[in-house]
């Protein structure tokens, strides 16, 4: 299979996954009653957060339409953070690892010299669309854009100087970890350390921090721009080209280790509790054991039937939405990284045969999670590019 055939297949896969996400997430949410339940609650005189007696904050900006949308987002994410919803909580934990590790890849790719001036360089906008419109919907669109516009997607056999353009400004590189920590890590930590009853817009409000975390791509981008000005690497910037390559590659390796950790830890934790519930049921309460079945955690309801049943409650609807969100996003990021990896290693003496490469990717996905597998494949791409 030549490059252009592989290119076409990879692009088609991402396009089909985006359609699948739109149908599995948005169509089902409208047809099964999920959006109607949330909208009805928000329209009540005193809206409450799902399965609680806690008042939902519906006044954020003073702009009615925007406030309604922001309140809808809070209503959607609150049940995921409620540990009483065991299946949904575990599902959300696993999805969070995929989301954040995937976001790191998107953010890093935006700073490559080869992607400068392209739509790919606007990572903050891409990340915001993924948060507000669905990770499973906009990640395939980003992957499609990357495959069709980035010179780095072409690989050494088509693109003459991948090793130079895969580089990035060392000031950008050094600011990335701190920007991610401030823009995404701090809001996540604050969600865990605050309480729902504080409904006024203040720093003690979990509802406020849920919204701030949703906008983390914007805050991460802003933090990066500020930190870049105070982060310096003067010696490395004037070093010979080979030393610059090694400095960039070493920095990327560190970022990839963190991204792999973010993906692997929740993935392995969820895998462990699911296996424990299956093989050692005596140690877990019956109700909890039922909630930890794979069929309870991930519920991919069919969207291709004309008769879509109504959901029994908000938690069920969110679980269905999140299932398609995660399944499509996982397939998308692995398919994208696999295609990019294959193109970059096409002329390498260590290139794997296709069946072996597929098995290798599947193994990485099981051990590190889908995003962890993608990180590993992109790291291998970088190693190949920098040593061409």
Automatic annotation (TrEMBL):
**Key words of the record:** Membrane, Transmembrane, Transmembrane helix
Report which superkingdom the organism of origin falls in: Eukaryota
Q: Any keyword Transmembrane?
A: yes
Membrane-traversing stretches = 6-26, 60-80, 86-108, 120-142, 175-196, 208-227, 258-279, 318-338, 358-378
Q: Give the taxonomic lineage as stored in the record.
A: Eukaryota, Viridiplantae, Streptophyta, Embryophyta, Tracheophyta
Q: Does the keyword Transmembrane helix apply?
A: yes
What's the protein name?
Uncharacterized protein
């Amino acid at each position: 299979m030549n490059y252009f055939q592989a290119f076409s297949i990879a692009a088609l896969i991402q396009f089909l996954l985006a359609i699948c996400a739109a149908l599995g997430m948005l169509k089902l949410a409208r047809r099964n009653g999920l959006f109607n339940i949330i909208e009805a609650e928000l329209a009540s005189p005193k809206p409450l957060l799902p399965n609680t007696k806690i008042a939902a904050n519906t006044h954020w900006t003073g702009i009615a339409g925007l406030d309604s949308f922001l309140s809808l987002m809070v209503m959607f994410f609150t049940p995921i953070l409620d540990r009483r919803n065991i299946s949904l909580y575990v599902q959300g934990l696993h999805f969070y690892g995929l989301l954040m590790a995937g976001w790191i890849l998107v953010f890093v790719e935006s700073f490559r010299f080869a992607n400068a001036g392209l739509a790919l360089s606007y990572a903050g906008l891409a990340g915001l669309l993924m948060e507000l419109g669905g990770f499973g919907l906009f990640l395939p669109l980003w992957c499609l854009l990357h495959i069709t516009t980035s010179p780095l997607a072409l690989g050494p056999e088509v693109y003459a100087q991948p090793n130079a353009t895969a580089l990035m400004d060392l000031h950008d590189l050094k600011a990335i970890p701190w920007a991610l920590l401030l823009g995404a890590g701090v809001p996540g930590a604050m969600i865990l350390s605050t309480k729902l009853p504080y409904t006024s817009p203040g720093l003690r409000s979990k509802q406020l921090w849920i919204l701030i975390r949703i906008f983390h791509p914007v805050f991460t981008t802003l933090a990066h721009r500020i930190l870049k000005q105070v982060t310096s690497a003067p010696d490395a910037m004037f070093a010979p080209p080979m030393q610059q390559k090694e400095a960039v590659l070493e920095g990327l390796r560190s970022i990839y280790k963190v991204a792999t950790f973010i993906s692997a830890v929740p993935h392995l934790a969820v895998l462990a509790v699911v296996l424990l519930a299956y093989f050692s049921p005596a140690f877990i309460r019956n109700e909890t054991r039922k909630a930890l079945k794979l069929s309870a955690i991930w519920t991919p309801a069919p969207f291709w039937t004309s008769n879509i049943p109504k959901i029994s409650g908000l938690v069920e609807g969110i679980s269905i939405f999140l299932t398609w969100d995660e399944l499509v996003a996982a397939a998308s990021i692995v398919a994208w990284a696999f295609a990019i990896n294959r193109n970059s290693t096409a002329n390498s003496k260590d290139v794997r045969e296709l069946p072996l490469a597929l098995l290798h990717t599947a193994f990485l996905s099981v051990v590190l999670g889908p995003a962890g597998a993608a990180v590993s494949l992109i790291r291998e791409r970088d190693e190949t590019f920098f040593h061409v």
